[in-house]
Specification:
single chain, 103 residues, alpha+beta, Zincin-like, three-stranded mixed sheet, two-stranded antiparallel sheet, 4 helices, 5 strands, globular
Length: 103
């Protein structure tokens, strides 16, 4: 697996987002995304997604959370910031209780 994908998966775990790879019935580019299942955040990624699509989906999910306290390599940080909620709509998630809540 691509190192940046593994790094983004670890970062997701640090903000309490479970990453799962599923067989999705979609041919659309970047199948999957961030959702809440039984009160917990998940990033569901199509098993058929190539590493670039996986990295983009994970970065998009991480962009909804405050990742400033998480070490990311410059390449991973740039990818997350390119998809951050702050850049896109002026809002960022903050810690709340046991989980993290994106806008």
């Amino acid at each position: 697996m691509e190192p940046i994908v593994e790094e983004l998966e670890r970062a997701c775990a640090q903000v309490s987002v479970k990453v799962s790879y599923e067989n999705l019935d979609t041919d659309a580019l970047g199948g999957g995304g961030l959702c809440k299942v039984k009160g917990e955040w998940r990033c569901i990624v199509s098993r058929r997604a190539h590493p670039g699509e996986r990295a983009t989906l994970l970065a998009r999910a991480l962009g909804k959370f405050d990742t400033s306290a998480i070490f990311l390599t410059p390449a991973a940080r740039d990818l997350v910031e390119a998809h951050s909620a702050k850049k896109n709509d002026g809002a960022h998630a903050t810690a709340a209780g046991n989980g993290r809540n994106p806008p």
